[in-house]
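Late entry, evening session. Most of the bench is empty. Finally got around to the prediction I had been postponing all week. Sequence below, unchanged from the version circulated by S.P.
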Amino acid sequence: MTQQRADHRPYFFLSYAHTPGYGGGSDPDMWVERLFQDLCGHVMAMTNLPAGSPAGFMDREIRSGEGWSERLGNVLANCRVFVPLFSPRYFASEMCGKEWYAFEQRAIHHRARSNQPAEAIVPALWVPVQPSQLPGPAERLQFNHRDFGDRYVSDGLYGLIKLTLFAQDYEQAVYHLAKRIVHVADTVQIGSGRPLDFRLVPSAFGAPGSGAGAPRPMRISIAAPTRHDLPEGRNPEYYGDNPQEWNPYHPAAARPLAYVAEELVRSLNYQAVVTSFDEEPGQREGKQPPSTPEILLVDRWALQDEDLRRRLAAFDRENRPWVTMVVPWCREDHQSRAAEAELTEKLEQTMPVKMRQGRAFCRVAAKGVPSMEAFGQILPQVVEVAAQQYLRHATVYPPAGGRHSERTRLMGPMGNTRFIPDMHDPATDAEDV
């Protein structure tokens, strides 16, 4: 009988916003470290982790001289549960948003491979936060904080830990938080992932300074056949009853790519809408101003349909830089690999503008993304380009009353008023076609 290998990965990663020092006083984050030590003690008591194994991780454990980016990337690729300490400062922190996104991408890939629920984020209230301050990824979490006590909800862990009057409430909240961490770790069991480069990881809370607010709109459209209209001889295992069910990374992925892309886009604080390329033909005709940034996922096999190929070519000639193209192309699909040269040439002839448009990583995305992991790494970058180009090309409305302020305002498709930052980038301008 083979013995199951012991799992010595950290049970949790404590993600928190550093509090600036003031007045030469004591370390303002010492209370977070006390919480961390208390949680580790409970986790060790509740599990069979051997001595020396880490119960948890917080960034104070990074030694001087150690590469912080590499260490954070490795721990986030291996820890079992992500514990964000909610506070207004937390959601204003770009680094906290990066940590959240790095862990959430692992969970999304786990769900894509297994088609099983995999929510392994256990939030904790450090300071009470108003619902209006929560970005989309935090707002969507299904979590009942009242399970940890009413005083915890009204004062947060910081209030309980600072006031001796609430010492018992603090002990109760931390004990139940540790129980939740262990339960989620043991039931969800997210496998280890590939460490991400923190220099490239986006924030789950949006661009720095954007605030929480409503998630920004983003369209994901699919140009792919269905199993009912495939080119002759094409394997139907990769397709469903509509284009949104296309699964180019089958069998490694158990879920259609459109819904994996939707989760990845939502994890970047966008409101994603998934459609097929043909679903709104009226918006594809003529030179129309943008209504939303868009990611176009193209299956090269779709180009075997001459009618769809004609419409894609017409769309390409309109030169819409707020639509970025990604071409998933699995190297494990032997049929696709055999036809790669022919279908690549056909795509280059059909959509030459999109093939050479945008920054270098956009052109890489258009040439073929070989795996689900590569897709997850490149999608945030093309999403950001689409969002920037949308802001540059969308209709701008002057303020009411005819007077011009220092900044004009952009009316989004949902009627939201948003300020436009200066997105002018000469390097990007030179790459626009």
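Two things to note before I forget:
Residues 216-393 form one domain.
The longest strand covers residues 216-223.
Will write this up properly tomorrow.
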